[in-house]
């Protein structure tokens, strides 16, 4: 079940999305994009089901591969989940995340 994430993690997700799209990436690649708190961000994104663990590197099993979930599906899942929108503050956070995310997508992909 997809869960709400704080705004600062949403911004990190959007940086990863603009860099990797739906392609798998490693923690090391994410560190180059995010610069700090990468392991915390990846953990929270994975726990909230915004990214998924794909597998380990064949040559070095310490390296993990992750993949971003489809952003449209995430927003639809969040809006449909009654647990996420139970309280007023959760609804406001969802609306804020949705509008922030939609504006990021429009700016990134030049959608009018």
Keywords:
112 residues, mainly alpha, globular, 12% strand, 5 helices, Arc Repressor Mutant, subunit A
Task: Describe the protein in words.
The chain is mainly alpha-helical and 112 residues long. 57% of the residues lie in helices and 12% in strands. It contains 5 helices and 3 strands. The protein has a 3-stranded antiparallel beta sheet with strand order 1-3-2. Strand 2 and strand 3 form a beta hairpin. The longest helix has 22 residues. The protein starts with 6 loop residues before the first helix and ends with a helix. The relative contact order is 0.18.
CATH class: Mainly Alpha
Q: What's the CATH topology name?
A: Arc Repressor Mutant, subunit A
End-to-end Cα distance = 31 Å
Low-confidence stretches: none
Q: In what order do the strands lie side by side in the largest sheet?
A: 1-3-2
Structural class: mainly alpha
Q: Could you tell me the mean pLDDT? A: 79
Percent of residues in helices: 55-70%
Sketch the major β-sheet: 3 strands, antiparallel
- Beta content comes to 5-15%
- By DSSP, the count of extended strands is 3
What CATH architecture do you see?
Orthogonal Bundle
Tell me the Rg in angstroms: 14 Å
Number of domains: 1
């Amino acid at each position: 079940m997809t869960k709400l994430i704080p705004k600062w993690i949403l911004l990190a997700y959007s940086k990863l999305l603009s860099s990797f799209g739906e392609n798998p990436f490693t923690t090391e690649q994410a560190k180059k994009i995010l610069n700090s708190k990468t392991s915390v961000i990846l953990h929270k994104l994975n726990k909230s089901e915004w990214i998924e663990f794909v597998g380990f590197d064949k040559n070095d099993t310490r390296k993990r591969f992750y993949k971003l979930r489809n952003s449209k599906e995430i927003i639809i899942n969040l809006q449909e989940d009654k647990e996420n929108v139970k309280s007023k503050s959760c609804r406001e956070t969802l609306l804020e995340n949705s509008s922030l995310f939609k504006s990021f997508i429009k700016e990134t992909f030049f959608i009018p």
